[in-house]
């Protein structure tokens, strides 16, 4: 999947399979979600039944209905102190289900995915990593009314003047910005520091922006829809021309998470002297947020919530490969689940009976200690048949903009049935590259055939290994 997100301009003929460039807000974490971009929700009817395919989800009806019940429980606040555990073979849609649950809970709900093994760090305590994830999954929606200038940029001219200090160079003395709304236009004369902010936000004529009147902070809302183009896939967000006057009071909504607040307060920017500057350079690695700091942050947040300025939005923590956690983490997880401000917790694993990490003799189902299992609502995901794999492959091909020749879908589905759903989906990108190499814009059956000569699926590879565990009976060399 990674190769497809490269800049389209570098690979001219095959660029049609390029995903839209990641938006500015996406970070390393969102790339883990990209293979699930076709999943829009659980696809349940109003009475909680799963249609055979809905919201990008194919089959897996029992698990989807079960997750729907969990969503209802969360919404009616009856899920606290519990967790949802998804169990099933690799590639059966556990991650996809977790993502769908978070979609069902609301659009701006924070989703914080992590993998069990992420807790093992030499710098930060295991429990601290868990605690941080939980904090990052609790959103805070802050509403403020501010005086702003808002509109579509019609003009952006920096005015230059002789630099009084250096004699030769020129500096920007002020910048003229024209803003347009449905009701009128206004020309603003702004300070050069605001011009820097404008450059940083990459604002050009035709963008809708607002400037906060008393801080001068500039924010780009999106591109005016008068400039909307007819591309099918685009990363740009188009917004209508703002209504009302240019200069007005506007309710601004900001979404942050408790984790953001903790981090911002753990590394305060204060201090002008050289020592504090040096100190902040050295401490820029990961440092722990203390419990005391969290309590302070909680107190401030509670104040805001009581005043009605902010609203708490509990999100979802998703811990994949949960069997990788050890016994210390599990007991801590129990405690976190009971804390008053806990997000919805979804765990996933593909293990059967396994040793609980960190113990020598406790074997437990899914490698999860029974006291935590006891708090879990366990949902099992099933394997897929050929038809269902075919449908998902078609969905992904549409999302990635790939054209499939006749018989290709059946062939990939067949491979998927032999290997796994994930193997089938992973065939798509290399096959499209092969097709591109032979100058076709469409994947044909022969590309898939060639793929099979080049690569092995997990099961084939496993059967190739001889009885004594070596390739070719250990006679490789
Ligand atoms: N029922 C389904 N409908 C649509 N896509 C699915 C379905 N099940 C799995 N997928 C897709 O198959 C791929 C593998 O699924 P994933 O959720 O990562 O499996 P797991 O986490 O169980 O190993 C993902 O791209 C996922 O979006
Ligand atoms: Mg997964």
Automatic annotation (TrEMBL):
Residues 1-34 are annotated as: Disordered. Residues 1-12 have a biased composition (Polar residues). It is an enzyme of class 3 (hydrolase). GO terms for cellular component: nucleus. GO terms for molecular function: ATP binding; DNA helicase activity; hydrolase activity. It catalyses: ATP + H2O = ADP + phosphate + H(+). It is found in: Nucleus. PANTHER family: RUVB-RELATED REPTIN AND PONTIN (PTHR11093). Belongs to the RuvB family. This is RuvB-like helicase.
């Amino acid at each position: 999947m990674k190769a497809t997100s490269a800049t389209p301009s570098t690979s001219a003929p095959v660029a049609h399979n390029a995903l839209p460039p990641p938006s500015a807000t996406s970070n390393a974490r969102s790339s883990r979600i990209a293979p699930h971009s076709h999943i829009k929700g659980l696809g349940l009817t109003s009475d909680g039944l799963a249609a055979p395919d809905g919201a990008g989800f194919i089959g897996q009806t029992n698990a989807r209905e079960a997750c729907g019940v969990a969503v209802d429980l969360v919404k009616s606040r009856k899920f606290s102190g519990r967790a949802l555990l998804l169990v099933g073979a690799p590639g059966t849609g556990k991650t996809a289900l977790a993502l769908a649950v978070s979609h069902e809970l609301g659009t701006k709900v924070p989703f914080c995915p992590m993998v069990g093994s992420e807790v093992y760090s030499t710098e930060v305590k295991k429990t601290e990593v868990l605690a941080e994830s939980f904090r990052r999954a609790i959103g805070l929606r802050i509403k403020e009314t501010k005086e702003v200038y808002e509109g579509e940029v019609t003009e952006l001219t920096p005015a230059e003047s002789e630099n009084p200090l250096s004699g030769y160079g020129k500096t920007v003395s002020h910048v003229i910005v024209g803003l347009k709304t449905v009701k009128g236009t206004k020309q603003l004369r702004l300070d050069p520091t605001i011009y820097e902010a404008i450059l940083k936000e990459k604002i050009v004529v035709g963008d809708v922006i607002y400037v906060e009147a008393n801080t001068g902070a500039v924010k780009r809302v999106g591109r005016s829809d008068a400039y909307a183009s007819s591309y099918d896939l685009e990363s740009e967000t188009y917004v209508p021309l703002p209504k009302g006057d240019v200069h007005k009071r506007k309710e601004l909504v900001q979404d942050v998470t408790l984790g953001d607040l903790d981090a911002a307060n753990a590394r305060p920017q204060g201090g002008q002297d050289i020592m504090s500057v040096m100190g902040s350079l050295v401490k820029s690695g990961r440092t722990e947020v203390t419990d005391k700091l969290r309590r302070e942050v909680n107190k401030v947040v509670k104040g805001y919530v009581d005043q009605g300025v902010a609203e708490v939005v509990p999100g979802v923590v998703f811990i994949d490969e949960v069997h990788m956690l050890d016994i210390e983490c599990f007991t801590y997880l129990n405690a976190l689940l009971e804390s008053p401000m806990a997000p919805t917790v979804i765990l996933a694993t593909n293990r059967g009976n396994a040793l609980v990490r960190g113990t020598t003799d406790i074997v437990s189902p899914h490698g999860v200690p029974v006291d935590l299992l006891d708090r879990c609502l366990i949902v099992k995901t099933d394997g897929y048949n050929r038809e269902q794999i075919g449908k998902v492959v078609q969905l992904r091909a549409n999302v990635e903009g790939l054209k499939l020749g006749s018989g290709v879908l059946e062939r990939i589905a067949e491979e998927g049935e032999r290997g796994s759903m994930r193997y089938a989906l992973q065939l798509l990108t290399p096959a499209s590259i092969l097709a591109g190499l032979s100058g076709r814009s469409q994947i044909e059956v022969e590309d898939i055939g060639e793929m099979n000569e080049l690569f092995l699926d997990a099961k084939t590879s496993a059967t190739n290994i001889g009885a004594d565990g070596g390739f070719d009976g250990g006679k490789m060399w």
